[in-house]
Write a structure and sequence with these properties.
Length: about 270
Amino acid sequence: MYRFLLSRQWVILTLLALVLIPTMVRLGFWQMHRYEERSARNQLVAEALAAKPVPVERLTSPGHTVTSAERYHSVTAKGRFDTDDEVVVRRRTNADDEVGFHVLTPFVLDDGKVLLVNRGWIPADGPSQTAFPEIPAPPGGEVTVTGRLMPDETTEASGIKDLKGLPDRQIMLINSVREAERLDAQVLGGYLALTAPEPKGDSPEPLGNPGDENAALNYAYALQWWLFAAGVPIGYVTLVRRERRDREEAAAAAAAAAAEKETAPSPA
């Protein structure tokens, strides 16, 4: 009745089903793992943003690597902006996906250490991207700034290539170690994404809050893969039964035709 399963076509189909089921199950578990990772990251971000601001030197120091638990934590610092050593970060977009620069300004603390402050986005509306753009001045004198603590940027994490030979006072990635060499100063690890004081005239354009990663999508994908895995054996059994039924009907039709031929009267 089921000898057709030994045919080449059905052996290949059976092996394909046996491979697909565990593969889809594993893909479902991988998506669930991504869901758990993203949910945990969203929770860390939410807790960091909701936490009470603390002095920046409580969380970072020269040479320190900002951890995932410290990232986005609100910090404060007191000092003055040093616009003489200000640089711009190339190929950055704003909320409308317009390409421009981020403004990175050294902020000298009362103890002489330097905190890198990303003051926000400005458009690349000059005659060329090789010329240093006009940048709105920050508040003068001694001020207190507040912002989100961010880790140093890397190509691996951002996908941005760290190009060499850039125009003067332009960089691709914010790196406190490299800036410490350029400034010949003690620079705190990571940098500050400025949230206060707000710029006059909304320029530089303030940086947006970090968005939640869509963890629910990974959860849906996990369920989808597991449903596919459950559907493979169901589909396989359905195909086997249909094949058996078609073969039985074909055999019955052939037998009926043969019997009719045998009982038919011979021609005179």
